[in-house]
Amino acid sequence: MKEYIVNYYLSEYHGAMFGFFAGIVFLIAAFLLWKFGVSGSLARGIAYSLIGGGLFFSVACTGVMIHNKQTAQKVEQSIIANNADVQTSEVARMEKVMASSYTGALIMFSLFIIVGLVFVLAFQGNLLMKGVGLGLLIIGAYGHVTEAFSMKRNRGYLEEIKSLKFENENINNMKMENKELFGTATVGSIEVRNRIIRAATGDRAHGNVTEEVIENYRKLAAGGVGAIVTGFVTVEERESFIPTLSFYDDKYIEQHKPLTDAVHAGGGRIVLQIASVGSFVTGGDYEGVPVYAPSAVEHMYSKIVPKEMTIGEIKQVQKKFADAALRGKKAGYDGVEIHGAHNFLLSLFTSPHYNRRTDAYGGNAGNRARMLLETVKIVKDAVGNDYPIWVKINSEEHFDNGITLEDFLYQCRELEKLEVAAIEVSGNWSSVASRTGPLYLDAATKAAESVATDVIATGGFREAAQMQEILMTTGIDAFGIARPFMKNPNLNEVLKLTN
Ligand SMILES: Cc1cc2nc3c(=O)[nH]c(=O)nc-3n(C[C@H](O)[C@H](O)[C@H](O)COP(=O)(O)O)c2cc1C
Predict the structure, then answer these.
(1) In CATH, what class is 182-494?
(2) Which of 106, 139, 149, 468 is 20 to 30 A from 434, comparing alpha carbons?
(3) Are strands 389-394 and 422-426 parallel, antiparallel or unpaired?
(4) Ligand 1: which of 196, 197, 201, 228 to mutate, most ligand atoms within 8 Å of CB?
(5) Spatial separation of the C-alpha atoms in residues 22 and 58, rounded to whole Å
(6) How far apart, in whole angstroms, are the C-alpha atoms of residue 265 and residue 214?
(7) C-alpha 210 – ligand 1 centre gap (Å)
(8) What pLDDT, in 10s, does the model give residues 202-256?
(9) Going along 92-189, which residue ranges are E strands?
(10) Ligand 1 in contact with 232 (CB < 6 A)?
């Protein structure tokens, strides 16, 4: 939106620059007429008009150029230009100014033409005045043609801006309201004490919940973070060799209750992350376990070439996600997060690099998202409409044939239609893990502009002041932080705050 407004003013600036050069051309033409045709009264008359018109154009257009350049710079520098209220009033103001300046210009150039015609017709015998009239006609006609072009172009710009604005207006108005990083808020339909989420970080476990695991979560909750997403838990028994927590059986419900109780006792909230790793098998011994994925494409990290899943296997794994989610609800979790990121099974489906299927689960963005969306639906059916479902997805995958921004935003819109409570925006984080600063902020900002669903931006967030500013200037609702909490469970210390 901001770029569009800046472009509008730059386009006005270039239009004025064109007018300025036209003024100079008029002056040159007048000079040439003066030099070579000054003996003729008609030529002298035209030259007079062109001098007047040339001076007028060059001076007026210089003023318009300066004004528009300065306005473009002001908009460019203002962070507040992302605010929907400001955008609404700015576009209304631009429309008003455009309407009045074009009306003024059209009246003025029409007057040039009328007066020019009057001169030409009235002063039949006076060649000098006839020349002035002809000059006025030239200026008036030129003015009309250029104004018509400029009006058409800038109207187009405004229409584009308005369509963007109206698409996002309601969303932004809802999302911009006084979001504070610290202090209670509702994020992803869960009431939290602040907008910082401990992003999922795998637990060192072999299926079962241990005292050590509970202790980790107890410390995180006591440390003050708003909500915690667990490390991913496997929904399928066949993936139980992976060194993390399992959730494929009802026996885990009781095991997890002390964990959720510990977090609640510390004033925290906890969301269970459910996953199937697909071909991203990097730990544990999978000897003899068939590794499957959407297509038989070697996984970039595990180097495993999986078996292509049948439709039956797709339906089975979806059902396992649903069963695990329901167990999570019974175990006292405040919500579930479906892991649709990081080249795990669901994101292998959404990525064109990994998904080469030719059936309903492969091909265009809609087909590639089908696995994820059907999984969300079946989970929702299992846990009920009121239970918070978060979904973590990859934004752009910066490799050949990876997920594009358009794919990602498409998924966001479809997830919004399914009424998920939050979308956590991640990416190929392991490939950019060494980078400092926010990793996917642009994509998360665009997602927040596109959907009313709460957006959690994850990856590289470390500074409270920066996060607060992002809350105030974008539609992002919360931030996921993972690695710093591995070293220190205390939120204030992680953010280097004194209290
Ligand atoms: C050791 C480790 C384990 C992780 N485990 C998970 C996981 O289980 N599920 C998940 O979605 N992301 C996992 N992540 C990724 C983080 O949730 C997060 O997206 C990533 O670390 C970027 O955020 P950060 O810069 O705040 O660390 C893990 C990251 C690390 C370092």
Answers:
(1) alpha beta
(2) 468
(3) parallel
(4) 201
(5) 8
(6) 12
(7) 21
(8) 999 999 999 999 999 999 999 999 999 999 999 999 999 999 999 999 999 999 9
(9) 182-187
(10) yes
